[in-house]
TrEMBL record:
Pathway the protein acts in: Carbohydrate metabolism; tricarboxylic acid cycle; succinate from succinyl-CoA (ligase route): step 1/1
GO cellular component, one term: cytosol
Function recorded in the entry: Succinyl-CoA synthetase functions in the citric acid cycle (TCA), coupling the hydrolysis of succinyl-CoA to the synthesis of either ATP or GTP and thus represents the only step of substrate-level phosphorylation in the TCA. The beta subunit provides nucleotide specificity of the enzyme and binds the substrate succinate, while the binding sites for coenzyme A and phosphate are found in the alpha subunit.
Protein name, per record: Succinate--CoA ligase [ADP-forming] subunit beta
Entry's EC annotation: 6.2.1.5
Keywords of the record: ATP-binding, Ligase, Magnesium, Metal-binding, Nucleotide-binding, Tricarboxylic acid cycle
Domain ATP-citrate synthase/succinyl-CoA ligase C-terminal residues, every copy: 271-389
Cofactor binding notes: Binds 1 Mg(2+) ion per subunit.
Length: 397
């Protein structure tokens, strides 16, 4: 699950990571109020107005603006709230901004230069260990740094038996070229960030930039946090941070019915039980000359209710020219699934696309008979190839 920058920063703060202070706002009036409060709390006289969407690259798209007075805060918040923000990560249609974070300006001049670093904590699947990935080239596109100057990206692997060691945190600070107070602050920052990553059961914490201020403080200016869905039951307070407005509405609806649905660009809708079978079915569709319109795993127990919910979701996609239902009857009996398909078909009514049902496993023959005798526009098959051929045939018409 993804969360907003302001929520990520709240979490970081609770683990003792220094962050650029900010207050979230949903209207220009709230933004001005937030800016005043921040002035009292931090003494700042300048602010940054930051669009809160689940995508990075906001600065490049015009979603991060410096404001040098309360009037400018009001002005810039009014401009950003409600805008359709396009960044390199949103796709051309962009994302609607509903909230802004009003943050203290931390790029103020001082005794030394400020510096931007990159740091993330994530699981390295190759070694099965958590790593801290970091680079002195922060603030900008880390993908570009990785492509052009891979020697500027460092990795520190954490042994799960002993956890992050103090010498490792010092190594990070050393590789950043820090000294004195900034060095000490960075050691604390790395340790606290790693604790936050572990303590929240996250799969990613990415801080870009980590800022060294001109008075040698180290802080998180941005926060991209990816919480592990499978661990959310242990963190109801984080689960409550979910922002449905940021997610694909069809995928949200699918989630409510316990369906694993991912929308794709093709023309053949799929309804399958089991993720592996769903992948194989998508391959078969491609081999037969079609393109899958979605990935949809209805789970182990495909009841009439789940089948109906799945139909509703697939049929919302205007590109769908045929639907292939591929169910293996192991725990669930094929005849019950067949009855479910027939019931759902009749309940929804007015289904215009041809449906091909391939049922294999327990009571497959009975299931085929039920479908063939239902009098509906449903083609039945037992063998997968047979089903694929039917898809090719209906796509021709
Ligand atoms: P992203 O573009 O979505 O990654 O958003 P960030 O939170 O990383 O902000 C983008 C950029 O805005 C940063 O790299 C900074 O250059 C700039 N920025 C962020 N906070 C401040 C601030 O307090 N003052 C100034 N002057 N610039 C800031
Ligand atoms: Mn950033």
């Amino acid at each position: 699950m993804n969360i907003h920058e302001y929520q990520g920063k709240e979490i970081l703060k609770s683990f003792g990571v220094r962050v650029q202070e900010g207050i979230v706002a949903e209207t220009p009036e709230q933004a001005v109020e937030a800016a005043s409060t921040l002035k009292e709390q931090t003494g700042t006289g300048w602010w940054v107005v930051k669009a809160q969407i689940h995508a990075g690259g906001r600065g490049k798209g015009g979603g991060v603006k410096l404001a040098k007075s309360l009037e400018e805060v009001q002005e810039k918040a009014a401009k950003i709230i409600g805008m359709q923000l396009v960044t390199p990560q949103t796709g051309p249609e962009g994302k609607k901004v509903n909230k802004v974070l009003i943050a203290q300006d931390v790029y103020y001049p001082g005794a030394s230069e400020h510096k931007e670093f990159y740091m993330s904590v994530l699981l390295d699947r190759a070694t099965g260990r958590n790593i801290i990935m970091y680079s002195p080239e922060g603030g900008m596109d880390i993908e570009e740094v990785a492509a052009k100057t891979p020697d500027k990206i460092f990795k520190e692997e954490v042994d799960p038996k002993v956890g992050l060691q103090a010498f490792q945190a010092r190594k990070v600070a050393f590789n950043f070229g820090l000294e004195g107070a900034a060095f000490k602050e960075m050691v604390k920052f790395v340790s606290a960030l790693y604790k936050a990553y572990e303590g929240t059961d996250s799969s990613l914490f990415e801080i870009n930039p980590v800022l060294k201020t001109s008075d040698d403080k180290i802080m998180a200016v941005d926060a991209k946090v990816n919480l592990d869905d499978n661990a959310l039951y242990r963190h109801p307070d984080y689960a409550a941070m979910r922002d449905l407005a940021e997610e694909d509405p069809t995928e949200v609806e699918a989630g409510k019915s316990n369906l694993n649905y991912v929308k794709l660009d093709g023309n053949v809708g799929c309804m399958v039980n089991g993720a592996g079978l769903a992948m194989a079915t998508m391959d078969i569709i491609k081999l037969a000359g079609g393109e899958p319109a979605n990935f949809l795993d209805v789970g182990g127990t495909a009841s009439a209710k789940t089948v109906e919910a799945a139909f509703h979701i697939i049929l919302q996609d205007p590109n769908v020219k045929a639907i292939l239902i591929n169910i293996f009857g192991g725990i669930v009996r094929c005849d019950r699934v067949a009855q479910g398909v027939i019931d759902a078909y009749q309940n929804i009514g007015d289904i215009k696309v041809p449906i091909i049902v391939r049922l294999q496993g327990t009571n497959a023959e009975e299931a085929k008979k039920l479908i063939d005798e239902s009098g509906l526009q449903v083609y039945s098959a037992i063998a997968l190839q047979e089903a694929a051929d039917l898809v090719t045939e209906v796509l021709k018409n």
